[in-house]
Specification:
about 475 residues, alpha/beta, TIM Barrel, 4-stranded parallel β-sheet, 9 strands
Length: about 475
């Protein structure tokens, strides 16, 4: 089949709405990309080395692709995720191309179609018949100097790209990019301290040891660990960080005396902490993160409600980030009460709430953002970054919080080449939603144009303190 991108894709079917949506989208289609939450490796951009091959570029790192192929019986080892037995890249690509039909109707299909057509100039849908030809076409594209990461960074009009980094990460690539006068973009680290929120996890004491070695602060005590984390946050800020990122199983926050926290920390260090105590420890670490953000100004991103590594045999064989992190029902209003009582009206504190449970947008997140100056409704991400869910988010959140208490679009991806396509999907859906407000008489068309611009620039820059 011919691969042709419909210029009106994802725009409303109603003729009046479509006309206005076209104009709104046209006004922002080439706007610079602001990506304040993602997982691209800064070293890839700093080193500016050619990409490996089509499979490594588009399939192996993309858990959206991996999980759906795995759901149809493809072994992850055959998709390049086995550290002990590397798979042939061409065969990985063949496996993907033969199963292209499986992605029909998914957001991954939208992103892949856009990438294939707009980046590589491909004009046919992948299939068993053309798999080798497409592999060779993309391989030739990879060999071109114009296809290296820095050239693409400029071609994609990326203005700001945030990465995700452990507190003990050396951040050398970030320092190199900041010092390079030939690189005009901004690649910012994001402080992600999840390892220190899980005192029951097998690697907790190792994480404490690594943090102690790096900072010279004894993390055997809770007070020492908190000081060490604060030290690393300051280092991240020096290299341009404006935000932290926290992924926990629920949104619980808990105010706690230091003496009680020290008791729980000692129990964790000795491997004696109970599940109930571990949950209290984690909730207090969420509170402590808010306390630190209220002091140093780093924007706190919180995305609870994900059960990580649901299938232990897959985790043991292939490691994390292989498609079996799954969503859970999530509540925010009651769990965050301690935190918001203490910091919710603090002018320096800012929190962006994300969810994979879209029922919480209208029930919890929008009402919280509609009262607390510190709270912003994070964009749909993961499982919800579909056209329909993005539209439902706007409908659920706008009534209570409006546009200016939302985060701007979040691409949340490791798949570097998909960034423009993901942002374009959001811009098209937002254009359609704004057009519907214009047609219903809720919004003047001129104001809709201003808001369309704000959604892709002013809002994310302001929310994440990028300026």
């Amino acid at each position: 089949m011919r691969l042709e991108l419909d210029p009106d894709r994802l725009l409303p079917a109603d003729p009046d709405e479509r006309r206005i949506a076209r104009e709104l989208h046209a006004a922002v289609v080439d706007a610079p990309i602001v990506s304040p939450h993602g997982h691209v490796d800064a070293a890839m951009i700093a080193e500016d080395a050619p990409f490996e091959d089509p499979a490594d570029l588009l399939i192996v790192p993309d858990h959206y692709v991996l999980r759906l192929l795995h759901a149809h019986g493809v072994d992850l080892a055959d998709l390049g995720r086995s550290p002990s037995s590397p798979a042939d890249p061409r065969q990985i690509w063949r496996t993907f191309a033969e199963r292209w039909h499986l992605f029909a109707g998914t957001p991954a299909r939208l992103w892949l179609e856009d990438t294939l057509a707009s980046v590589f100039g491909v004009r046919e849908h992948p299939s068993a018949a053309n798999a080798d030809e497409l592999f060779d076409t993309i391989s030739a594209w990879i060999a071109s100097p114009e296809s290296r990461p820095r050239a693409l960074f400029e071609r994609f009009r990326i203005d700001v790209l945030a990465t995700t980094d452990d507190p003990t990460a050396d951040l050398d690539a970030h320092a190199e990019l900041r010092a390079d006068p030939t690189f005009a973009g901004r690649v910012l680290p994001t402080f992600r301290a999840d390892r220190y929120f899980a005192p029951e996890a097998q690697g907790f004491t190792t994480a404490l040891s690594e943090l102690s070695s790096l900072t010279g602060i004894d993390c055997g005590s809770a007070a020492g660990m908190l000081r060490a984390l604060e030290t690393r946050r300051a280092h991240f800020r020096q290299l341009g960080a404006t935000a932290t990122d926290t992924g926990v199983v629920d949104a619980a926050s808990l105010r706690m005396d230091l003496s009680e926290f020290e008791r729980l920390h000692r129990a964790a260090v000795y491997g004696e902490i109970t599940p109930t105590e571990a949950a209290r420890y984690r909730a207090h670490m969420v509170w402590q993160s808010a306390r630190m953000s209220s002091e140093d100004g780093l924007v706190m991103q919180l995305h609870p409600g994900v059960l990580r590594n649901h299938h232990r045999p897959t985790l043991d064989r292939f490691g994390p980030d292989t498609g079996h992190d799954l969503p859970l029902p999530t509540e925010f209003t009651r769990p965050l009460r301690d935190l918001l009582e203490d910091f919710g009206t603090n002018g320096r504190f800012r929190m962006v709430l994300f969810t994979v449970d879209e029922t919480s947008f209208a029930r919890d997140i929008a009402p919280l953002a509609g009262f607390y100056p510190s709270v912003y409704a994070g964009a749909p991400w993961w499982f919800l970054d579909t056209p329909a869910a993005i539209r439902r988010y706007r409908e659920a959140v706008t009534d209570a919080a409006g546009f200016f208490k939302t985060s701007g679009f979040i691409d949340d991806t490791r798949a570097f080449l998909s960034i423009p396509a993901r942002h374009d999907v959001s811009r098209r859906i937002d254009a359609g939603y704004l057009a519907s407000l214009v047609v219903r008489g809720q919004l003047p068309e001129e104001e809709a144009h201003h808001i369309a611009q704000d959604l892709v620039s002013t809002i994310p820059r302001s929310v994440f303190r990028l300026d």
